[in-house]
Amino acid sequence: MLRSAGVAADISHINTKSEVKGYDPTPSGLRECLTGAEIVLIPAGVPRKPGMTRDDLFNTNASIVRDLAKACAEACPEANLLIISNPVNSTVPICAEVLKSRGVYNPKRLFGVTTLDVVRASRFVSEIKGSDPANENITVVGGHSGVTIVPLISQSGHSDISGEKLDTLVNRIQFGGDEVVKAKDGAGSATLSMAMAGARFAESLLRASQGETGVVEPTFVDSPLYKSKGVDFFASKVTLGPDGVQEIHDVGKLTSHEEGLLDACLADLKKNIEKGVKFVAENPPK
Ligand SMILES: NC(=O)C1=CN([C@@H]2O[C@H](COP(=O)(O)OP(=O)(O)OC[C@H]3O[C@@H](n4cnc5c(N)ncnc54)[C@H](O)[C@@H]3O)[C@@H](O)[C@H]2O)C=CC1
Ligand SMILES: O=C([O-])CC(=O)C(=O)O
């Protein structure tokens, strides 16, 4: 367990040294810290500033994630890769394309970390209901950006949240990240809650890898659910197992309102995924 956590810490550490002392993290330093890793969290890149969308980070973060994916393909091809760097809807497909180009793509071991969306959803619902967020279990599917974030409140047992109240809640969940970016006013985005979400996901993966059954987390993975609509990656509840993805759950029963949210999600998600795939085709890792 410590080793996996250490790998993530080491990447940040190397990069911090890089900024402070001009230490070059690639390729040998990076290779050294990645070799033998079982879980690698990738939160590298720039966070957004007020007024930016996550997609506005694409130009900077796409090549950073591509190069780290290449390093992982070479140094730890069997590791579970947990992608936090935004835009997650595009950086996960970028990783997949790089791993494919190196012949080591295992769709069961590549995850976009969307845990924060359910953490936020639980918090916002608990504020409305006066409940403990730890006891709220809100399903959020789709992607990790704006309208691609689709909370399924009808499945949460709170059918009394409806109308304008529901619209406000959904919008707050979809744009909760923007709220933080605005509040931090140029100092970055939700770094600490991202760390908590990443740690929760990594912990779940570790528990599953050690044989615990019934470990379910929401995550953005290579998914069969909407491939027929040209959407190759999708976040839904996933049962984790010793080999990574064990079972991808479908979205369940939706209200007509949620169907509408899902349609909007799929349209954007398709474009975000295609953008990532095209980037690697046009800018392959060296
Ligand atoms: N998936 C999620 O739920 C969330 C994702 N994020 C995303 O995580 C990313 C990082 O956000 P923060 O940690 O707040 O930013 P930060 O600026 O605090 O940390 C970014 C790290 O990336 C490293 N880095 C920069 N360029 C690099 C390169 N070329 N190669 C390797 N490492 C490099 C930096 O050294 C630094 O350690 C952003 O893209 C942000 O949007 C943030 C919050 C939640
Ligand atoms: O909003 C951002 O830029 C960071 C992020 O992904 C989140 O907080 O969910």
State the gist of this model.
With 286 residues, the protein is α/β, with parallel strands linked by helices. It has helices spanning 2-21, 28-34, 58-75, 88-101, 115-129, 163-174, 176-184, 191-209, 256-282, and strands at 39-42, 80-83, 110-112, 139-142, 149-152, 215-222, 233-241, 244-248.
Can you describe what's shown?
By secondary structure, this protein is α/β, with parallel strands linked by helices. The protein folds into 2 domains: 2-114 and 273-282, NAD(P)-binding Rossmann-like Domain (Rossmann fold, 3-Layer(aba) Sandwich), CATH 3.40.50; 115-217 and 224-269, L-2-Hydroxyisocaproate Dehydrogenase, Chain A, domain 2 (Alpha-Beta Complex), CATH 3.90.110. Helices cover 49% and strands 14% of the residues. It has helices spanning 2-21, 28-34, 58-75, 88-101, 115-129, 163-174, 176-184, 191-209, 256-282, and strands at 39-42, 80-83, 110-112, 139-142, 149-152, 215-222, 233-241, 244-248. It has a 3-stranded parallel β-sheet with strand order 1-2-3, with helices on both faces. Strand 4 (139-142) and strand 5 form a beta hairpin. The radius of gyration is 18 Å and the shape is globular. Residues 47-48, 54, 86, 116, 177, 180-181, 189-190 line the site of oxaloacetate ion.
